[in-house]
Amino acid sequence: MKEYARQAGIKQRVTPHVFRHSFATEMYRHGVPLNDIRAMMGHDTKAETAVYIHVSDQVKKVRSD
C-alpha cells in the first residue's frame, strides 16, 4: 500500500486504518445513515463509528442521525 501511495504522489501516511476513517467519512458525507455505516464497519455502537467520521462542524449541524 505504501508503494502505491508513493506512486500516486500521496505524502500522508496511508494504512488500512486510515482507509477505514476515509470510508466512514465519505459514506457519511454522501448521506449514508450512521447506523448503516456502523453495520458496514462491524461496530456495536454509533459512538464507536462516530470516532471514524471526520467532518466539519457545519456538516454536523446540517446532518443529524
TrEMBL record:
Residues 1-65 form the Tyr recombinase domain. Keywords: DNA recombination. InterPro entries: DNA_brk_join_enz, Integrase-like_cat_sf, Integrase_catalytic. This is Tyrosine-type recombinase/integrase. The lineage of its organism: Bacteria, Bacteria division CSSED10-310.
